[in-house]
Amino acid sequence: MQELDEKKASLYAHDGTERMIQRPKNNAKQKEHYSGKKKTHTVKNNVLANSNCEVIFLTPTVEGKKHDKKIADASGYRLPKGSILLQDNGFQGFSAENILILQPAKKPRGKNLTIEQKVVNRGISKIRIRIEHVISGVKRYRIVKDKCRNWLKGFTDLVMAIACGLHNFRLRFRPWKEISIQDM
Fold first, then answer.
1. What pLDDT tens digit does each residue of the chain (184 aa) get?
2. Which domains does the chain show, CATH number per domain?
């Protein structure tokens, strides 16, 4: 893993991803791993990608019930000063030192977004979609996409780390266009 805070300022995006697992036998573990969003038992990781769409940070695998923001807070990654971090509304309230966080505006209760807010949201989404492409590139491998049935200790972490490494390796031969801060 690279030391992020020593690099030059750039554009980064982070997002959470869930992977299905077999239903645990233990009732306490069932409650921990049950995701109300997916309506099944899952494990989660947060992925941080750079402007080249390379996975540069992967959080440890946690139970599916845990929220994306809590995972990001616990991981404690630091980005270079002056960087821009793109995130979705699942990270509402997440903050980091000396970086600009871009997040789509939420619709207020009982009101509509203004036209300016909609235009800004669309611009953020056009750039932030790259993190979704990164996650789909990682989930291209069936062992990550399908239900994981192996209960060896650390196996789910290892599988996700290898899939991220293979995604980065694939980018060396089929690179995506880099997005810079000036493109915004």
1. 446 666 778 899 999 999 988 877 888 777 777 777 778 888 999 999 998 899 999 999 998 889 999 999 998 888 899 899 999 988 998 988 889 999 999 998 999 999 999 999 999 998 899 999 999 999 999 888 888 777 778 888 999 999 999 999 999 988 877 766 555 5
2. 4-175 (3.30.420)
Distance (Å, whole) CA 11 – CA 149: 36
Say if pTM beats, i.e. exceeds, 0.85: yes
Q: Which two three-digit tokens encode residue 6?
A: 């020593």
Q: How far apart are CA 35 and CA 67, in angstroms?
A: 10
β-partners of residue 63 are 43
Conformational region of residue 93, where left means phi above 0, alpha means psi within -120 to 50, and beta covers everything else = left
